[in-house]
């Protein structure tokens, strides 16, 4: 088996349908189906159990999956090592981060990067949690949780202050909360418990007892929008909320701190274009720190 065959198997295994796999591979569905069928014919056994709506792995497919993922990691490692030897300030750099970090820091950094190095392009991948950047194929990640790995280059970019915010309309309806009263009687806008469990016990310095979470959302930009629309009290990054004239900070002395980390594949830290991107990101976050 070669990697060109294996990547079609892996895409279908990950996404469960030909359509989604085709979108990921940027080919048509017929090509994916044909390549998977050809691979099964070569192996003499089925890799998937087909249903009208999805593909699930056969026993052989399940046995092969870990080995094919290892193939993918090896191919990506070869590509990164080849790229690290390229000292030219051109080419693409893939950045994985959250939508909030992208809006506030990455986009301004890219503006400055374009002025200095117009031949460097960027692919920006946004999500809430980035647990394994090699799996996603990114070159570097900016995230709010320090990964537990000895194989990655990890650097703290900044420490972000967060606070509680609401609109005047909400406060007129619900009243100003009383400090130390566990935010009883108030509507809270929160990250899902499984994503940020600590906020469900301590919401920016206020201990909670049976919190009335009227909205759970995995995007801080949408939590900010919900707060601006008067749905409740949101815990937001101060660099976003302090600039918003529609938001009022509640208990300004209460602060929640989040470290922001740059995570980089060591194979790429010597690549000139990656170093240029990292420098632009560091400068962007440094502006906030000042």
TrEMBL record:
Transmembrane helix recorded as keyword: no
Domain named HTH lysR-type: residues: 1-58
Organism: Serratia oryzae
Homology family: Belongs to the LysR transcriptional regulatory family.
Keywords tagged on the record: DNA-binding, Transcription, Transcription regulation
Any one of the GO BP annotations: DNA-templated transcription
Record-linked PROSITE patterns: HTH_LYSR
Listed name of the protein: LysR family transcriptional regulator
UniProt GO MF annotations: DNA-binding transcription factor activity; sequence-specific DNA binding
InterPro entries, per the entry: LysR-type_TF_proteobact-type, LysR_HTH_N, LysR_subst-bd, WH-like_DNA-bd_sf, WH_DNA-bd_sf
Source organism superkingdom: Bacteria
């Amino acid at each position: 088996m070669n990697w060109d065959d294996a990547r079609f198997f892996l895409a279908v295994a990950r996404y469960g349908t030909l359509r989604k796999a085709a979108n990921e591979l940027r080919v048509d569905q017929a090509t994916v189906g044909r390549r998977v069928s050809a691979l099964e014919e070569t192996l003499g056994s089925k890799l998937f159990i087909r249903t009208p709506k999805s593909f699930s792995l056969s026993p052989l497919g399940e046995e092969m999956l870990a080995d094919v993922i290892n193939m993918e990691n090896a191919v990506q490692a070869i590509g990164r090592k080849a790229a690290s030897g390229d000292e030219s300030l051109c080419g693409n750099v893939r950045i994985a981060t959250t939508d909030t970090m992208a809006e506030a820091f990455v986009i301004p950094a890219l503006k400055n990067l374009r002025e200095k190095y117009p031949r460097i392009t960027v692919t920006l991948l946004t999500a809430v949690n980035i647990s394994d950047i090699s799996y996603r194929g990114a070159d570097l990640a900016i995230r709010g949780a320090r990964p537990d790995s000895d194989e990655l280059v990890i650097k703290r970019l900044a420490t972000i202050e967060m606070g509680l915010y609401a609109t005047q309309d909400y406060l007129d309806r619900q009243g100003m909360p009383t400090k130390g009263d566990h935010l009883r009687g108030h509507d809270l806008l929160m990250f899902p418990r499984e994503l940020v469990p600590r906020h469900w016990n301590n919401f920016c310095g206020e201990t909670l007892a049976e919190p009335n979470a009227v909205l759970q959302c995995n995007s801080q930009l949408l939590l900010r929008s919900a707060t601006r629309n008067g749905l409740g009290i949101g815990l937001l990054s101060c660099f976003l909320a302090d600039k918003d004239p529609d938001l009022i900070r509640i208990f300004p002395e209460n602060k929640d701190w989040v470290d922001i980390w740059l995570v980089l594949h060591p194979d790429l830290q010597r690549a000139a274009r990656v170093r240029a991107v990292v420098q632009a990101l560091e400068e962007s976050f440094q502006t906030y720190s000042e």
